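Why do we bother with holo predictions? Because pocket geometry can differ from the apo form. Keep that in mind while you read this record for iron/sulfur cluster.
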Amino acid sequence: MPYTIPNLPRIQRALLKWHDADGMHAPWRDSRDPYEALVAAVMAQQTQMSRVMVLYERFIAAFPTVEALAAASVGDVIRVWKGMGYNQRAVRLHNAARTIVRDGWPQDAASLATIDGVGPFTAAIIASYAFNQPAACVDTNVVRILTRLAGDETLGGKRLQDLADACMTGPAAAEPARWNQTLMDYGARICTSRPKCNECVVSKYCATYTRAQTPGGEVPHLSPKLVADTRTPYRMRPTTDDRQPKTKFEHTPRYFRGRIIDALRDLPPGKTFRIEDLPARIANEVTPAADEVEAWVTALEKSGLIERRGNRLRLPH
Ligand code: SF4
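The structure, written out:
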């Protein structure tokens, strides 16, 4: 049986009203341009919104249209992506732009999601923002609020998407972009990992909150004491992983792969350097071994992030 949330129309009205007063404003939210929605959605997936706000403007200034992005070289896109992290997204975004310029914009979420580089979340953002389609997007913020309202924080996969779709009805379906934005903002600001239930406009309809107020209710992060005492720093119980000694990020392959891209990004377009020079260029207190560097270079080349000609490296043309 599909999950539902009791009192859904009341919840929708209360959350949309909250969004009128406290929702986030962003250039791509005030636009019906599918390209702006595409860029913002790809950026927002693994980067904090405050950072996206700044870097989005720079990206749109460099590539103002999907045609401009498609016509650029991958190397130029990776250069402008500087500061965003997860550089693979720049390659995927570039691929998506080329497909869209070749085939045109699909108008619905299912067709958008078939484009290489556009996943279900990005497809739902574009379909709702630009084409006013009732496509429910699900990110970590949306997951938190919906599963808590439903009273089952273990919900995932298809059942979670079904729940999100079931909530995209009535006033939400009339304004799908605004509903998606409302859930994302509410999960980011109020229904956070340590939720601000005392400020919540839908607490009286929230199954998880109601259970937490009941003697014997087992919801550690919503215990009445924690919810009431906002001064106490909240930390989820450590997982097994948390208790393991952590490898310093600056010593990880991911860090060094990023440093390789940074080193190539700093070169003038068309310039190259030798793979043998890489260990010295990317070293910190650790100088990586030549075989490690070779493995990282091979992985980056396979991902389309760098090009190798003989022993020389550069960003792709
Ligand atoms: S009452 Fe608390 S847990 Fe429930 S939706 Fe509101 S903020 Fe989230």
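The longest helix spans residues 88-103.
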